[in-house]
Design a protein that fits this description.
Layout: H1 8-12, E1 14-17, E2 20-24, H2 26-33, H3 43-53, H4 59-79, H5 83-103, H6 111-127, H7 132-161, H8 165-168, E3 172-173, H9 184-187, H10 191-203, H11 220-230, H12 241-267, H13 272-292, H14 295-305, H15 308-311, H16 314-317, H17 323-331, H18 335-353, H19 358-361, H20 367-380, E4 390-391, H21 392-409, H22 419-427, E5 430-431, H23 445-451
Parallel strand pairs: 3-5
Antiparallel strand pairs: 1-2, 2-4
Helix pairs in contact: 2-3, 3-21, 4-5, 4-6, 5-7, 10-13, 11-12, 12-13, 12-14, 13-14
């Protein structure tokens, strides 16, 4: 990729260790992002810096600084009348902008960022009147960006229409449903099929917003909001911050609603024999989710069965064959920072890396644990080193986690969509957390402790942000 030249700050203010960039001043890191005639930044650096830079500088200000550096370099090249080098440099700048708009198109929903982008591309086209290739590349880039922004804008409008408190948790049951109402077994009695449909919901962003659907694709910059939100040292906020946070909340809400759906399905059944069958069915579904690599749905199902209205069903649990459930709880044991789960996740990751089919590539981590990993990595390591440099080693690691997660989310779901089953999962009424209590057997504290692990799931948005 060539060596970065152009200025003493590049060598003095960037620190490398074993060939890896570990720290630098913000200005030097920005300069390291901008191509020269003989240099183009590594793709991993582009992604990592563009992702992490928003903690320190708003995207539109970063883009303005990039444009300024580009202009200075162009002026130097023009003074030397080196047309071949000018064309090469222009092509590299367009390539950098293309990578930026593709990786983080949401940045350009900000009018200031879009204005800066247009200013840079305008200067390039004015100076490259004879270079049709550059003009064509810019036109294609802008068209793709505008299409992406239009799609996101439409999705946001649909989200806002459904963002009422009543719909955030789906339809809520306050009374016992009629006996004629179908339950989940009436829709699907095959645990594998239901696990596949849950995986489909986890992986595929739907075009129609439903109350409990994963209506918002999670993007890299959304995940970086976890850091930007809690960072008191660099307290700028970009337009759309609340929207991005809502993207995370909406996915987190899917977990909560799936847990409550499981509890609802169990508690609404009157006969113990049928309740036993329902519990064993969900245990098998969770097991199939584990085998697929869908740990998020698996954890949600386990959490639902450990909610007190279900865990306290002493008579029902006494009839359940709990060996499979015990194995699942072992995998989700919270001790040693979920060591067993992390071992299973590592195995699924290795399988995914060597996979020849989309079926083997599926890895869906427990979302709130993934969020906590990013959050605590941020809290443990400082943003700045004692010498004032940005601790870029920290952001390499955060970027690696986010990039890995985004790679998993982009796997094409190999399972055929069953609209009826998914519609039920996404729209079936659920009880409020208090609702099922009046319908369950008399509470037995010992049974709850015996059959339910400590409810480990905790919303990532309830973390101490101090």
């Amino acid at each position: 990729m060539g060596e970065r030249g152009g200025g003493a700050s590049s060598s003095r203010d960037l620190i490398f260790q074993d060939g890896c960039l570990i720290s630098g001043s913000l200005e030097a890191l920005i300069e390291h992002l901008v191509p020269t005639v003989d240099y183009y930044p590594d793709k991993t650096y582009i992604f990592t810096f563009l992702l992490s830079s928003r903690v320190f500088i708003p995207p539109h200000d970063l883009l303005a600084r990039v444009g300024q550096i580009c202009l200075e370099q162009r002026q130097q090249l023009e003074a030397g009348s080196e047309k071949a080098k000018l064309k090469s440099f222009s092509a590299k700048i367009v390539q950098l902008l293309k990578e930026w708009t593709e990786a983080f198109p949401y940045d350009f929903q900000d009018e200031k960022a879009m204005a800066e982008l247009k200013a840079i591309t305008y200067r390039l086209t004015q100076c490259e009147e004879e270079n049709g290739t550059v003009k064509k590349a810019i036109t294609q880039m802008m068209q793709s960006l505008l299409l992406s922004l239009a799609a996101r804008s439409q999705l946001q409008e649909l989200r806002e229409k459904l963002r009422s408190p009543a719909l955030d948790k789906g339809p809520v049951l306050k009374a016992k449903p009629p006996a004629t109402q179908k339950d989940i077994l009436g829709m699907c009695c095959d645990p594998l099929v239901l696990a596949q449909q849950l995986t489909h919901i986890e992986l595929v962003s739907a075009t129609v917003c439903l109350p409990r659907e994963r209506v918002c694709s999670i993007h890299s910059e959304d995940l970086m909001q976890i850091i930007s939100h809690v960072d008191s040292r660099d307290n700028h906020r970009c337009r759309g911050d609340l929207t991005k946070t809502y993207s995370l909340e909406a996915y987190d809400n899917w977990f909560n609603c799936l847990s409550m759906l499981v509890a609802t399905e169990v508690c609404r059944v009157v006969k113990k024999k049928h309740r036993t069958r329902m519990l064993e069915f969900f245990i098998d579904v969770a097991r199939e989710c584990f085998n697929i690599g869908n740990f998020n749905s698996m954890m949600a199902i386990i959490s639902g069965m450990n909610l007190s209205p279900v865990a306290r069903l002493k008579k029902t649990w006494s009839k359940v064959k709990t060996a499979k459930f015990d194995v699942l709880e072992h995998h989700m044991d919270p001790s040693s920072n979920f060591c067993n789960y992390r071992t299973a996740l590592q195995g699924a990751t290795q399988r995914s890396q060597m996979a020849n089919s989309n079926r083997e590539k599926i890895v869906i981590p427990v979302f709130n644990l993934f969020i906590k990993d990013i959050y605590f990595l941020h809290k443990i390591h400082t943003n700045h080193l004692p010498n004032g440099h940005i601790n870029f080693k920290k952001f390499w690691e955060i970027s690696r986690l986010i990039h890995e997660f985004m790679t998993w989310t982009q796997v094409e779901c190999p399972f055929e969509k069953d609209k009826k089953i998914q519609s039920y999962l996404l729209t079936a009424p659920i009880y409020s957390e208090e609702g099922p209590l009046s319908l369950t057997e008399p509470e037995d504290v010992d049974a709850a402790c015996r059959h339910g692990m400590k409810h480990t799931r905790e919303s990532c948005f309830n973390l101490d942000m101090g």
